[in-house]
Design brief:
Elements: H1 4-15, H2 38-49, E1 54-59, H3 62-75, E2 79-84, H4 91-105, E3 109-115, H5 123-130, E4 135-140, H6 149-155, E5 168-171, E6 175-179, E7 195-197, E8 200-205, H7 208-219, E9 224-226, H8 227-231, H9 237-252, H10 258-265, H11 267-274, E10 280-282, E11 284-288, H12 305-314, E12 319-323, H13 330-342, E13 346-352, H14 360-367, H15 370-375, E14 379-383, H16 389-394, E15 404-406, E16 410-413, E17 417-421, H17 427-432, E18 436-441, H18 443-460, E19 461-468, E20 474-482, E21 485-489, H19 497-506
Parallel strand pairs: 2-3, 3-4, 7-15, 12-13, 13-14
Antiparallel strand pairs: 1-8, 1-10, 2-5, 4-9, 5-6, 6-8, 11-18, 12-16, 14-19, 16-17, 17-18, 19-20, 20-21
Helix pairs in contact: 1-6, 3-4, 3-10, 3-11, 14-19
């Protein structure tokens, strides 16, 4: 006991931490009187022709998703509001930052809200960016800097373990981008070894002011701390100048990159500049968690997105297609989905295979529900990690790398309504984190979604089927393409026994609500 006590005291002391006082923090709101901006005038005719509706344009390819953000930023005149869970210090991160700075240099007000999970030791960079007179940077639900981050996961469990997983990008309150992409190379086809297969949607029209209102809730919430307050120490002018110079030199060195070329050469870029991009119009419903969710009891659903999106699942009549990289349905989810099947609804799910999942413990949480889903008639597909050049081309650009991991979150209801956003169907997303997405009523988008799903699963994913052996025991088969040939697997493809055994043990731990 004497040897344990000092360790406990040390742990508590190291975990003790405090956050700065932000009572003098300014409150600000989106600019909504922006009809006279370039984007406002450019979209005006289409928006007037579809009163009360929302125009949508899916961003499937990573390169297009970057181009859309960059061109919108270059057309901004009043404001840019950006919100991300992860914001990496890599090629895409630096190019994206450069677009924000260029806009701010023109007098555009830039508000950048980033979850503190990925900021790490970049407080100085965030504070330097925020020192620009037209840029504000806030960190959401930050870790205290006077205590161990690792120990805060213990001493502040239930607080710092709940994160802002939302992604939104809004320009002049006239156009917004929502979806699954964070800011980083792997989300925009810039990674050499791994690319996340992701999906965003660009929207104009009636839903955009609602997205701006959603952003304001998070920007002005008690969880949003100014970057300079978190750092504490004042910015040294010489230090800031050196950092800006280094960043500028890096960006200039990328002038020949595919991303910067695409800004001037791509159809999407030119159509956006000319105001000729063709949007599909229909009703849209913005669904999101309120920031209060992060401090509510987990059982309190008052501020939850799940309450708002549940009716879309419950009202399905013919077909439900789910794309969710992290998929842990739980007993209740299995019962619900198999119940849909029993009343004649086709239910099909695409998630990551073990080889493609970047979070192994999440796969452990999912694997134990596979048999129940298959018994109940749910179609299960697990995305392969390694794809050939021909397979990537055949997917219509959705898979840009030979090593892909599914990251898109989308649901299609009866081929008429489609959800695109940040929400995974797992307990962490539904109960713990803050999420956002948009449900779009569009048969064109719904039919396109379903046609892509049905046309690509055979080539891009393993189809799971439940079989019975000679002794009457059930087992799962994985059927798919491996090294260019059809193949059947009798365990998670391309995985070792030790890995499967280790994950099976992890699946026994009582931590599912944290996955």
């Amino acid at each position: 006991m004497k040897t344990v006590l000092p360790f406990v005291v040390l742990t508590i002391c190291l975990g003790c931490s405090s956050l700065p006082d932000i009572s003098d923090r300014t409150v600000s709101y989106a600019f909504l009187d922006t009809a006279d901006t370039v984007l406002g005038r450019g979209f005006a005719e289409e928006v007037r022709a579809h009163p009360g509706e929302t125009g949508v344009y899916p961003l499937v390819r990573g390169l297009d998703a970057f181009v859309a953000r960059a061109v919108l930023a270059r057309l901004a005149e009043r404001s840019i509001d950006a919100q991300y869970y992860l914001y990496h210090d890599d090629l895409v991160g630096n190019l994206f930052t450069a677009e924000l700075v260029r806009a701010a240099d023109r007098g555009v007000r830039v508000r950048l809200l980033v979850d503190d999970m990925s900021v790490g030791d970049r407080d100085l960079g965030a504070a330097i960016l925020a020192s620009h007179p037209n840029i504000e940077v806030r960190l959401f639900n930050p870790f205290a800097r006077d205590g161990s981050k690792l120990l805060q996961f213990i001493t502040r469990f239930g607080s710092v373990t709940r994160r802002m997983h939302c992604k939104s990008f809004i320009v002049d309150s006239q156009a917004a981008i929502l979806g699954g992409r964070n800011i980083g190379d792997e989300y925009f086809e810039a990674g050499d070894n791994l690319a996340f297969t992701d999906l965003d949607v660009m929207v104009i029209g009636s839903v955009v002011p609602k997205v701006s209102g959603f952003y304001d809730l998070y920007w002005n919430s008690d969880f949003a701390y100014p970057a300079e307050a978190i750092r504490g120490a004042p910015i040294v002018p010489k230090e800031a100048a050196a950092a800006r110079r280094e960043h500028l030199e890096f960006v200039r060195a990328q002038e020949g990159s595919s991303y910067l070329k695409a800004l001037s050469e791509s159809h999407l870029a030119n159509a956006l500049r000319a105001g000729s991009l063709e949007f599909d119009f229909g009703a849209a419903d913005l669904v999101y968690d309120r920031p209060e969710k992060l401090k509510d009891d987990a059982d309190d659903e008052e501020h939850h997105l799940s309450k708002k999106i549940a009716p879309y699942f419950e009202e399905v009549e013919r077909e439900l297609l789910i794309i969710s990289p992290y998929f842990i349905p739980g007993d209740g989810g299995v019962e619900f989905l198999t119940g849909l099947v029993s009343r004649g609804v086709r239910v099909a799910v695409l998630t990551n295979s073990l080889e493609g999942n970047d979070v192994g413990i999440v796969h452990a949480g999912y694997a134990k529900y596979r048999e129940g889903l298959l018994r109940g008639g749910v179609e299960l597909y697990e995305m392969r990690k390694v794809l050939s050049k021909t397979e990537r081309k055949a997917s219509g650009g959705a898979f840009g790398s030979s090593h892909s991991s599914l990251h898109a979150k989308a649901f299609c209801f009866d081929r008429k309504k489609v959800f695109i956003g940040s929400l995974n169907l797992d307990p962490r997303a539904v109960i713990q984190n803050a999420e956002v997405g948009v449900v779009i009523e569009s048969e064109k988008l719904g039919e396109g979604f379903a046609d892509w799903f049905d046309g690509n699963m055979e080539q891009l994913a393993y189809r799971l089927t439940l079989k019975t052996n000679y002794y009457g025991s059930k087992y799962i088969e994985w059927r798919g393409i491996s090294e260019g040939k059809p193949r059947t697997f009798y365990a998670d493809p391309h995985s070792s026994f030790l890995k499967r055994f280790g994950l099976a043990l992890l699946g026994l731990l009582p931590i599912e609500d944290q996955l």
